[in-house]
Each structure stands twice: as structure tokens, then as C-alpha cells.
Design goal:
The protein has 568 residues and is an alpha+beta fold. It is built from 15 helices and 18 strands. The strands form 4 sheets. Strands 1, 2, 3, 4, 5, 6 and 7 form a 7-stranded antiparallel sheet that branches. The chain has a 5-stranded mixed sheet with strand order 13-15-16-18-17. A 4-stranded antiparallel sheet has the order 8-11-10-9, sandwiched between helices. A hairpin with a 5-residue loop joins strand 4 and strand 5. The radius of gyration is 37 Å and the shape is elongated.
Length: 568
């Protein structure tokens, strides 16, 4: 980049007495506006760019390049490319001295559109397209090269890089304003460097095909046109330069003055961004993401705007398809839930009749059944009871939802008290001792949290050991979310950790995950009744609350169930 942006002549000092120094007319004022535009466009450009000297040592780079590489290269030390590691499109390693930038310098020719894979130090890999071009002096000798890396992954990063580069540009402009040229030769050198920089910049901009890059005057009239603009919008340069950028907007957007609103936003805030449908020359529409940046002179007056457009039609189509799939899935879930309710309602009545008739027969003293037939009736009654329990549990499972309106403050102390009261008869019969520390008030769905405690306390009571008095201990603490369990929330987020531990019959450690699956049972139904849905309900409740549950146990010694719910 050039060393100075604002130059002015100082009046020369004449050593001969009696002679007056002559004023040199400022000639760089004509270049100043062009230089400012060049610098603001260069640093505001949302694509990775860097330059090297003729030996390939990096001499400068922009923020977008550092973000793409995931590192800050050392000026004058790093060769060819600032990336930690690069690969070919097939994934094979590409030595730095064989990268496109190195080839462009060694062979003295530009390369355009070659793809490489940039690997960051943290292991993230990104596909980019490179445009290295050698720089020649007036004698035709290579003096260095510039390269542009097009990141196809995230437009948002480009916008962030643009904002950061604009900030740096303003800082650089403040520094450059303090520098003054003292001799005519320096002005000429500045002029030559400026011309070379402008040529280099315009060549780089013209070759970019993935972004439409425009320069607008302060009224929104198009001043220049690159290959990307021609590819995306369909106009030749001679067809569009001199026209308003409003031509790209749909009639409805023009009527609502959207183009004028975006220009005014950029004029007021310095920058405006927007996504929406735009028109090509042939009348077809594409989904465009645009960033308009205001360009200013030294006095802070707006002298124009840069406008960068990206065609995101494919991404928009994919997002719309996903929304359609989500709507269809929601509809299917509702239909499935309605079917489950209807099926359960229809099944309850015959089950009730089976239980009624079997009980009536078995309770009739006048009916003397043989042992075999009586056993059949007993088994039929028990099967009907299990089926009814299964239907009730399945209905509870299908009713689990995460509607935002259902969340409210839940006092876990009151929840535990209610659950223990419902099990008071069993607690008294088994002489169970329940000890709990004070529990927090959380944000949750009340009936689901109660169902969670009901299932866990009920399991502890059900699977107690007959050889000893059952103890149930409930502990609480605030912890950071374990990193290995960060599937649904951010690792390191503060969470409520509640554990329910007992000294019951326990289970093998290998079953600590499978017990949360639907219908999984570790103990026989003849000794421990149930449907095998209770713990799967607990897992679903935790998912609804953006948390998780885990289990640990030792056979014959007891089990501990711990669940985590995000704080706040």
C-alpha cells in the first residue's frame, strides 16, 4: 500500500538572500479523492487479500485473510501464503512453495479461479478460490504479487471483516492526514505508486466472479462494473454504468422505496445490509445478500458508496425447503398425537370391560373355577392392567412438548414435597428415609418437572433392597455444563445439577444409557411392575428443557440419577 494518502507542497526555502520562494500548485488534490476511494474499497473489501514481494515474502494482508487463515502471518517472514496448512481439492497436501501464489511469482503469470483447501490451526478446513497476480514495474520486472482468496462458506464473516477493515481504514486515514510531502519528487513518486495501486486494485476487482462489486456515486448511480456483477445480474458494463442501482429491485420494493431506504441507512449509519429478491436483466429473480458502505472524504462528506452483492439463491431454496419439511413434520406429529389419543380412548373401554368381567367372575362365590382356568383369568386381568398402564404412559409421552408459553418458575422444594406426599403410604410401609438439601427455583414446565421427580422417586421406592432400610438422598449444586455433554447447549454454561441417590438393588454399569430407551427393563415384570417408559419420559423431559440426564449404579448397592437444567 502507499505510504501517504494526503500530500501537499511546502514552500521551498531559498538559501539566497533577497529571493522569494515560489508556491508550488498542489497537484495531488486531483488524486486525493481517487486514493481515498481506492483505500476505502481495498480495506472495506469483504474478501481475503494479501501481497508479497518478488521473493514471495508476505508484505501486507487484510483482516479477512487473517480470519480465513485463522492466524496472523509474520510480515517479511511467512512465504507464499499466510495459511498454516493448505491442501488440494482432493484433500492431498499442497506444499507452500507449490501453491498458486508461488507459481504465479515463479512463472510470471496470473492464475484465476484455482481452488485450494485452507486448514486453520484449530483444524477447521475451508474451501477457497484463489486469484494470484504478479505485479510488474515499468521495465517489466516482477516486483511482487497480490492474491485474492474467495471464501465460499460464510457471507457473514465477510461482512464482519468489512466492518473491521472500515474501522482500520478510518484509523489509517487519521494517521495519514498527519504526514506531509516536502518535495516535488516525492509527489511524483506518490503519483506513480497511486496509479500502479489503482491499476492493481481494478484488475483484482474486475476478476472477481463470485461477488458483484459496484461503486456508486452519492445518488446511487452506478460508476463501475466487474465480472461478478455481469455474471450475477446479467448486464454488460456499457449497458448499466450511469444508471441507478434501483433497476435491480422488484417493482414492489421500488414502490416502497427500499433502495432509497438502504442508501439513507448507509448514509446515516455508515453501512447497510439486506437480503431479498433481486432482478436480473432477463427478468428472473435471485436471492441477493448486499452490503452498502458509505465512502467519505477528509471532511466527512459522503463521496459515494461501495456495494457488494452475493447470489444466495441456492441457500435460500434450501432454507425454504427445510421450513417446508419442518411444517410437514409438525403437521404429521399433530396427526400422530391425535391418532394416539383416539386409539387410546378406543382401547380403554374394552380393557375396562375385560377387567370388570374377570373380576366379576373371580369374585362370584357361586362360580367354582378349576385351578387352571382361575390362573388364566388371573393372568388375563394382570395383562389388562399392564396394557392400561402402558396406554397411560404412552399418552403422557406424546403430550410432552416444549411450547415456550408453558415455561414458568417452578419451586423444586414444593415439587418434591408433592411427590413424596403422593407416595406417603409406600414410604411408611417401607420405612424409607428421604433426605434433601434446599432445592432451587428453576424455569421449567411444571407438570413435566413433577413427572420427572415422580418417576425418579417412584423408581427408588420400587427397586429397594428388602435386606435394608431404603435411604433416598437428594443433593443440589450449580455447576458448569460438562464439555462432553454439550450436545444441546453451549459448553461451559451454568446449570442446576440435581442428583437422586438410593441404596437399592442398583444395576450393572453397562446399562447406564440403555435404561433411558423406550420399553427397556432391567428387572422382571413379575417382581417389579411397570411399562418401561418412565425413564424414557425423564430423558424427553430433559431434552424439552435443554438439559440432560445420566445414571450410575453399583449392583446390590444402589443407583444415582443426575439431571442438569440450564440456569436462567
Amino acid at each position: 500500500m502507499n505510504e501517504h494518502s494526503n500530500l501537499m507542497y511546502k514552500e521551498p526555502q531559498n538559501d539566497s538572500p533577497g529571493k522569494q520562494g515560489s508556491a508550488v500548485t498542489p497537484i495531488v488534490d486531483l488524486l486525493q479523492g481517487s486514493e481515498e476511494q481506492y483505500q476505502q474499497l481495498f480495506f472495506g473489501f469483504p474478501v481475503a487479500m494479501y501481497s508479497t514481494n518478488q521473493q514471495g515474502y508476505i508484505t501486507s494482508y487484510n483482516k479477512a485473510a487473517a480470519m480465513l487463515w485463522g492466524r496472523e502471518p509474520v510480515i517479511g517472514v511467512d512465504l507464499w501464503c499466510g495459511s498454516w496448512k493448505i491442501s488440494r481439492p482432493d484433500g492431498s497436501h499442497l506444499p507452500l512453495d507449490s501453491c498458486p501464489m508461488a507459481i504465479a511469482l515463479k512463472e510470471g503469470r496470473p492464475l484465476s479461479g484455482e481452488e485450494i483447501i485452507v486448514e486453520r490451526p484449530d483444524g477447521e478446513r475451508r474451501n477457497v478460490r484463489v486469484h494470484p497476480r504478479p505485479i510488474f514495474d515499468q521495465s517489466g520486472k516482477i516486483t511482487g504479487a497480490v492474491n485474492m482468496l474467495i471464501d465460499f462458506t460464510e457471507i457473514k464473516q465477510s461482512e464482519q471483516a468489512l466492518q473491521e477493515n472500515e474501522r482500520k481504514l478510518r484509523q489509517l486515514a487519521d494517521q495519514l492526514e498527519q504526514k506531509v510531502a516536502t518535495r516535488t519528487l516525492e509527489v511524483e513518486q506518490k503519483n506513480e505508486a497511486l496509479i500502479r495501486s489503482e491499476e492493481r486494485f481494478h484488475k483484482m476487482i474486475a476478476e472477481v466472479e463470485d461477488y458483484a462489486i459496484l461503486l456508486l456515486d452519492k445518488n446511487g448511480i452506478i460508476q463501475n462494473w466487474n465480472k461478478g456483477a455481469e455474471k450475477i445480474k446479467g448486464y454488460k458494463e456499457e449497458e448499466i454504468v450511469g444508471k441507478s442501482f434501483r433497476i435491480f429491485y422488484l417493482p414492489a420494493d421500488q414502490q416502497n422505496k427500499l433502495p432509497e431506504k438502504l442508501i439513507e441507512e448507509a448514509r446515516t449509519l455508515g453501512r447497510a445490509s439486506h437480503e431479498g429478491w433481486r432482478l436480473r436483466k432477463d427478468g428472473t429473480a435471485f436471492w441477493g445478500s448486499i452490503v452498502i458502505t458509505a465512502l467519505h472524504d477528509d471532511q466527512g462528506n459522503i463521496i459515494g458508496f461501495s456495494k457488494v452483492t452475493r447470489d444466495l439463491t441456492e441457500r435460500k431454496a434450501a432454507e425454504d425447503k427445510m421450513k417446508q419439511y419442518a411444517g410437514e413434520l409438525e403437521l404429521q406429529n399433530k396427526e400422530l398425537q391425535q391418532f394416539a389419543y383416539a386409539a387410546a380412548h378406543d382401547m380403554k373401554e374394552p380393557l375396562r370391560k375385560i377387567q370388570f368381567y374377570t373380576t366379576a367372575i373371580m369374585g362370584n362365590e357361586m362360580v367354582q373355577l378349576p385351578g387352571k382356568e382361575k390362573n388364566y383369568l388371573d393372568r388375563t386381568s394382570m395383562a389388562a392392567m399392564r396394557m392400561q398402564e402402558l396406554i397411560e404412559d404412552l399418552l403422557t409421552y406424546t403430550k410432552m412438548s416444549t411450547t415456550a408459553e408453558m415455561f414458568e418458575q417452578v419451586d423444586l422444594n414444593k415439587t418434591l414435597e408433592e411427590v413424596c406426599f403422593s407416595y406417603q403410604d409406600v414410604i411408611d410401609q417401607t420405612n424409607t428415609v428421604i433426605a434433601a438439601v434446599p432445592l432451587p427455583v428453576i424455569t421449567g414446565i411444571p407438570f413435566q418437572i413433577r413427572q420427572l421427580f415422580d418417576n425418579l422417586i417412584g423408581n427408588a421406592l420400587k427397586y429397594h433392597s428388602p435386606q435394608r432400610v431404603l435411604h433416598i438422598i437428594i443433593n443440589y449444586e450449580r455447576v458448569l455444563n460438562p464439555a462432553e455433554e454439550a450436545g444441546s447447549i453451549t459448553a461451559g454454561q451454568e446449570m442446576h445439577k440435581i442428583s437422586i441417590q438410593d441404596n437399592g438393588i442398583g444395576f450393572e454399569a453397562e446399562f447406564s444409557e440403555i435404561i433411558f430407551e423406550m420399553f427397556e427393563r432391567l428387572h422382571g415384570r413379575e417382581n417389579y411392575p411397570g411399562t418401561g417408559i418412565g425413564l424414557s419420559l425423564c430423558k424427553k423431559i430433559m431434552q424439552n428443557h435443554k438439559g440432560f440426564i445420566e445414571a450410575a449404579a453399583i449392583p446390590g448397592e444402589g443407583a444415582c440419577f443426575t439431571f442438569y437444567i440450564p440456569c436462567g
